[in-house]
Structures
1.
Amino acid sequence: MSGYTHRLYKQHLACFACRKVWRQERLDSESAPLCPDCHQPLTDMGKDFKAPRRNATAQWAKAEALVKNGIRFSSLGTSGTIPQRLNEVEAFVEARAQSAAEQAAASERYERQRAKEQRLAEVWDRREQQRVRQYQKKLSRPAD
Ligand SMILES: [Zn+2]
């Protein structure tokens, strides 16, 4: 990712205290900038974040809850639809964690299966080599 670190891009930086979004072009290697109004650190919401209206406090709380759970608005395309309401966030985060755990378990099963096949192949190889050695020994033995 080294080629990516100094690219300039437009960010949606949210201040949850002011319920405002600041669009800034900045280096993504910079640390989080501060809100121009209240000087709290801004949160990078990703480039696809759509800010709720200032008085939509539940929507802002929802966005904050999603971000705190590591859900970025630019990476949601592959992980299903974002919850519409604050009270859906918990279930959404849980389902995501569960599917991540299921994926991890599936890949572990796959790795175990592969390791088993690998061991079997090695055993097979050793037997084959043994058979070849025995055959060669038989060939080099002088005929009676
Ligand atoms: Zn602020």
2.
Amino acid sequence: MNCNCIKELEQKLAKHYSEQLGVAAQVECQDVALILTGNSMARRLKNAFQVTAQSKGFIKGKTIPVTGSYCPFCGKAVVPKPAEPATEAA
Ligand SMILES: [Zn+2]
């Protein structure tokens, strides 16, 4: 992700539940996919879609993960846009 929303939400929820329960709580987002980007791994929110077809492995449905291009919490693009080349003034 191009932001820290998942980590920040995990921390806010852990604080909230720790206060509410009176004991330390840990929170970990469960709808996260690990994506290899270059030489590192990135966490991205994922949604599950079910594909059903009359084909081996798909007859009862097969769940596939799909990640979005933008963070649903802050709206930033998941992958930073490459810098646009400088244009010469006419
Ligand atoms: Zn975000």
3.
Amino acid sequence: MKCIFCGNSESKVVDSRYLKDTSIRRRRECLSCGKRFTTYETVETNPMVVTNVDNVREPFKIEKLTESIKYATYCVDLARPVEEIASSIETKLFALQKQEISTQDIVRIALDVLMEMSSMACLVYYTQHTNCSNFEDVRRFLNR
Ligand SMILES: [Zn+2]
């Protein structure tokens, strides 16, 4: 957030006040010129909707994604924290610019991201989230 007086991008929050449950007002002080200005933060009220294989629609939840990544990587040494991985998957999902995404979209992107880090995590995630029911499927996936 750039200072409206001098354009400096660093400021500190001197006061925060909730306006409603989804909105917050922050009083900021510029670290360069010391002047104060006010910003408003509002929760995105138009979240992505996830449609699963049974056509059930539910709002996208990063917590759920984080849990599934945590599960798939519990036996793997990762270079990045799970939350960061989930967040980069979320960013890629937002980049699709679709209001409605499918669970397949999530799985596909999660696999792409996990593949860069660990094929083991990728495999565990794959078996958890697809209809893969036998070793042939897994082998086909690994040879892809
Ligand atoms: Zn300033």
4.
Amino acid sequence: MIRLLLLCAATAGAADNVLLVSVDGLGYRNLTSSAAGRELTTLHALTIQPMRTAYPSKTSAGHAALFTGTWSGTNGIVSNTVPLTPRADHTVKETVSGFRSTALTADPIWVTAARQGIRTVAYQVTQAYPFSERSAGLSLPHPPVVLNGYQTEQFVPYRVVRQRDLEQSGRATFLWKDGPLEFRIRRTARGLRLSAQGHTVTVVAQAPESASPRGRPLARYFSRPLPLVIKGKRTAVFFRLIEFDDAGFTLLHTSAHELAVSGLGRPIPGVFVGNSAISVYEKGALGKLLVNGGDGSAERLMLETIELSVRETTAQMVWLQRTVKPRLFVGYYSVIDDTEHAWYGLSSAGNTVIDGFRAHAYAALDEGLKQLSAPYARSAQFFSADHGMAAAAREIHMGALLAELGYDKTQVVPNASCLYLNTTDWKNGTITLGQRAQVLDALRARLAAHPVVTRVYGEADLRVRFGLDGPTSPDLCFDVAPLHYPSETADPPVVREFAYPRGEHGFDPTREDMWSYLASSLARPAQMGTLVDIARAVLARLH
Ligand SMILES: [Zn+2]
């Protein structure tokens, strides 16, 4: 009894404020073994250990494991697309986004904590929106504050606007209209005045940022945000004047989204920017890519949008920390995933110029992490991620590969590095449950014999090692040879070369390049853990 009391006292004394942050796409290897990763001084001040993520190592599945403390057999979020259940009511091809709350079947940590009376904020977490009882604890006496701008409507994407494409609407004045976004552009001696809905911001031309992000304002060449109301929702865009001379101008504006907020009861200042400008960067709209002979200007502009995302994300999170004063704060950054999708493949191929740009992105993130974690210097801190990153030079069209092996679309359905048999427990299924074992054995053997397939996991592994034992779980998972990336595409050819090597994930989570990490203020645990261990450790610090 005395021992028990002492234990309770020790536990009570450990109650703490807790910071839990996911850095999307930051793997253990990049964090610990690359020059870029060493820029993350905030994380290197903590103890770092490798953590295994979900199978397949996709963003939705990794975050669901991190946030619910369960694998997808229990939490339902098997991949970025999730088959709808119950199986009897849906065909195997009917899916819903794994980023949305729709398919979530376990409680996320922010709801569990709020149910225990702990004041909680969750910023840009996955599986939160649409807000529901499960995803946002809507009926709780003290519901968590939950914010999401990724699954809401994106009113406009990032765009590059050129004077030569615009119709002049007056002297030195132009009108830009793109769906619900409309603003007036007026040339001045030094730059542009942008006006909409009674607000005006100015922007002057600057060469792409070349200084380190350390010790200066991030994204300093962007305009102030132009506030907008689109479809009744408050939003805003920022502008960056890339080129400006007598002949014309080139202007970048950021994407605009609805930021959905639950449980806050007042407006949040600042702007949800979301991802970097990777969508326009990869199309060459920011200038010729380095890999195509560019001089690095496009990469530097892309880095400025990474800085902007870090700056605005951090500002909103810090405001929430100060205003709500939560015991548990759950945060999220997207920028390393963008960085590594764009540049990790080139880095792996030995491109040292790209490594300099990667280090810049990591340093910018570190500036944000410093601000975010400063109030938690004497509290519990947990940083983790959903997956790592691997170089990929070619895509395997799994639909086409399955056709080559003799299967059609009504028999086997690919999803990342896993496969579903269209068994008769699904609506309109074609393979009886009696035939299942035989079909699965044959499929396994044919896949294993294919030169690009390096490994095939059977049912016991999926169930026991990876927690793939629920109604949304696949029948088989596999891994592919290095530099290959499996997509669901059914169009030939089976293997398609990328224009240049990319960073990709979604592979076997036991692969070292897919490992996530835990950087925490806890003493280092003895063994490698898995992402589902983290939620329990976080909750333990709150009591
Ligand atoms: Zn991710």
